[in-house]
Amino acid sequence: MDALQILRLPALQDNYIWLLRVTGSGFTAVVDPAEVGPVEQALDARGWALHAILNTHHHGDHVGANLALKARHGLTIYGPAADRARIPGIDVALGDGDEVDLGGLRARVMDVPGHTRGHILWHLPEAGAVFVGDTLFAGGCGRMFEGTAPQFWASLARIRALPPISQIYCAHEYTLGNLRFACSIDPHNLALQARLSQVEAARQRGEPTVPSTLAIEQATNPFLRCDQPAIAGFFGLDPAEPAAVFGALRAAKDRA
Ligand code: ZN
Ligand code: FE
Questions:
Q1: pLDDT for 108-142, tens place per residue?
Q2: Looking at 115, 119, 186, 227, which residue is catalytic?
Q3: 20 Cβ contact list (under 8 Å, min separation 6)
């Protein structure tokens, strides 16, 4: 996508910080800055300024550099209205359906509670990019710290309904463990088996596995398939009650 440049900045143990540069305007934003170092290094190497922080939720590995980057760049911090008290330095609090102009590129916010109660995602429809924080992972999903299973399932079902060609940018490199668990639940899924082989090879070469596409997640991520007989059947549950299946699946992953 020429309109938007997206850089992956590995941070902490297994986080990804996403640095966005709108080519036409030079507007630069960072999604969930876990720490200052990788962001400053990337900016310095390119001579870029930083204009905004886009937060998805309040956890320290997503807002850790908010105040330091704001002090240094005088930027604007956007985050979830439902959790504004827990987002350091927040300037603009946003909720479901709100839109932000990122230097000429439209970003749309969606409420996706479940991992935390105030989790949002950032959908950039013209760029075909979705920044999902810790709601959806490649091959998995975040832990259910603050939400309920019906809430989390509803959030995932809304993500699943976005355009399948969307690129899914999550905040952690958890793909290999997620896919191994997924294969234990959905062992006859050929697309999943193929993906696990690809990801094993990529990780052996030290390569990242994020972003993925929504189409791949729809086909292989069991947390998006709770209304499918293969996933519900594993737990002896009814695919017509996907929130219950989600609850069982999430609990099984927590024990894995
Ligand atoms: Zn988190
Ligand atoms: Fe996280």
A1: 999 999 999 999 999 999 999 999 999 999 999 99
A2: 115
A3: 4, 5, 6, 7, 28, 29, 30, 31, 54, 102
Active-site position among 51, 58, 59, 73: 59
Main-chain phi, psi angles of 84, to 5 degrees: -60, -30
In the block, tokens 């760029």 appear at 127
**What does the angle CA 13 – CA 149 – CA 249 come to, to the nearest 5 degrees?**
65
pTM over 0.70: yes
Cα 67 to ligand 1 centre (Å) = 18
Assess whether the previous peptide bond of 33 is cis (omega < 30° from 0): no
32 is catalytic: no
Do 69 and 37 contact (CB within 8 A), yes or no? no
On average, the pLDDT of the chain sits at: 97
Give yes or no for a contact between 107 and 130, defined as CB atoms under 8 angstroms apart: no
The neighbourhood of ligand 2, an ion, using CB within 5 A, equals 61, 134
The CA distance from 46 to 44, in Å, is 5
CATH fold for the domain made of 4-255: Metallo-beta-lactamase; Chain A (3.60.15)
Cα-to-centroid distance, 135 and ligand 2 (Å) = 9
State the amino acid at position 154 in one-letter form.
Answer: A
Domain boundaries, given as residue ranges, for the chain: 4-255
